Amino acid sequence: MPRILMKGNEAIAEAALRAGATNYFCYPITPQTEVAEYLAHRMPEVGGVFLQAESEIAVGNILFGAASTGKRVFTSSSSPGISLMQEAISYMAGAHLPCVIVNIMRGGPGLGGILPAQSDYFQATKGGGHGDYRLLVLAPSTIQEAVDLTMQAFYLADKYRNPVMVIGDGMIGQMMEPVEFPEKYEEPPLPPKDWACTGARGREPHIIKSLFLDPLALEKNNLLLYQKYEKMKAEEVRFELYKTKTENKILIVSYGTMARICQTAIDELETESISVGLFRPITLFPYPEKELYAEAARKNIKTVLVIEMSIGQMVEDVERVVRGIKPIKFFGRTGGVVPSPEEAKEQIKELLKKEAGTRKRKTRKG
């Protein structure tokens, strides 16, 4: 198929349609409103349902009801809107309901601003709502990858009967890039949705709920959820290595849009004969723990540098994974300020200078 120049939000919307999404519920919020704008005219063209609800709280509860019918359902929003859906997301996870949630992040906390940020990492990867549940979280760094991961998200949601979040930011949503859609979209076979509420004609009614008054029954449900998340960890880890070489002394860990900026910095440093590698998590949950540990443990790596558009939320996971085998440094901007390749290069050069100084001091002592 030919490549099409599309804005990120519109490409995500089209990808959802091509993955078989038939129900979209939303409430407008910058910087993702173009998803809703695009689907307002496209969803009726494919015989689907488009509904703008009165609030994000309403959207979350409509998603619960629609997902209960077995249809492919999804929503898109931005940081404060996702916050308002947290109770319903917890309910859907507890009820084993598949749905896709797209979060085009903006600055916060509070109402914040409309510019790009990555400060919803905790919200996405640590649950966000109440109870023992997790989302499978996918983090694209290009619009093409946003298309591909959005389409995969619906399959993964059905495979695990669990909400899946695609987490981008205002840059992913607003910039334009050429994208390509598969001529014919095919996915691996899924089990029948014999749990869905489709009208109890000739069978016992299905009851979909997250309420278990018997503590043993609730514990049993939580253990089923836990087994599901362990299976995700075994089967769904995704990551990318960029220019990781034996001469690297610094390993950058970054995701999403920020990883693209780091790639630019790495390419520019290469022209100055400075070699730096990048580890990019694509799944933020399940996090690529073994893979990151293996890269950080390499003898040539002296420092792990985490770069984010936040105060350092992913740093906690990197520290947990690396477990003290290498020093971990952090650089980030927040509130909608996007770090530039020049800023990233400055941080890298400063670390290399310090590392060289430490090596000289050790040599003198020796």
Keyphrases for this structure?
366 residues, Rossmann fold, 2 domains, alpha/beta, globular, 5-stranded mixed sheet
Indicate the structural class: alpha/beta
CATH homologous superfamily identity of the largest domain: Thiamin diphosphate (ThDP)-binding fold, Pyr/PP domains
In CATH terms, what is the architecture of the largest domain?
A: 3-Layer(aba) Sandwich
Mean pLDDT: 95
> Which strand-content bin applies to the residues?
15-25%
Tally of DSSP β-strands:
14
In total, the number of domains comes to 2
- The percent range for helix content is 40-55%
Total number of helices: 13
Strand order within the widest sheet? 3-2-4-5-7-6-12
Written account of the structure:
The chain contains 13 helices and 14 strands. The strands form 3 sheets. Strands 3-2-4-5-7-6-12 form a 7-stranded mixed β-sheet, with helices on both faces. It has helices spanning 8-18, 33-45, 56-67, 79-84, 86-94, 121-125, 143-160, 170-174, 215-235, 256-270, 289-296, 315-322, 341-365, and strands at 4-7, 23-26, 49-52, 73-77, 99-105, 136-138, 163-169, 176-179, 239-242, 250-253, 276-281, 283-285, 303-308, 328-332. Helix 1 packs parallel to helix 2 (33-45) and helix 10 crosses helix 13. It is α/β, with parallel strands linked by helices and 366 residues long. It folds into 2 domains: 4-193 and 210-235, 3-Layer(aba) Sandwich (Rossmann fold), CATH 3.40.50; 240-365, Rossmann fold (3-Layer(aba) Sandwich). 45% of the residues are buried.
